[in-house]
Amino acid sequence: MTPELFVKAVILGLVEGATEFIPVSSTGHLIVVSEWLGQVDERAKTFDIFIQLGAILAIVWLYRVRLYRAAAAARHDPASQRFFLNLAIAFVPA
Length: 94
Description:
mainly alpha
C-alpha cells in the first residue's frame, strides 16, 4: 500500500466513522469524498463496502449481549420477535 493510498483510506474511514451514526447518508458522503479523492474504480467500491461492514460489525459487537438475549427469547417473546422483524425490514433495499 502506497502512502497516498493509506492517507485516502484514513480519510474515507474518518468520513464513514463521522457519518455512519448520524441521520445523514454515510454512503452518499463516501461516494462524494471518493470522487474528490479520485477513488472511483471497482476496488474503491469494494473498499466502501468493507468499510461500511466494519461499522456494522462494530455495532453488532457493541450490542452482542443484547442481540444474543433477544435471539434466545425470540421463540416466546413477542417483543423480541417484533424486534427481529423490524431489523429484517430495515435491511430491505429501498
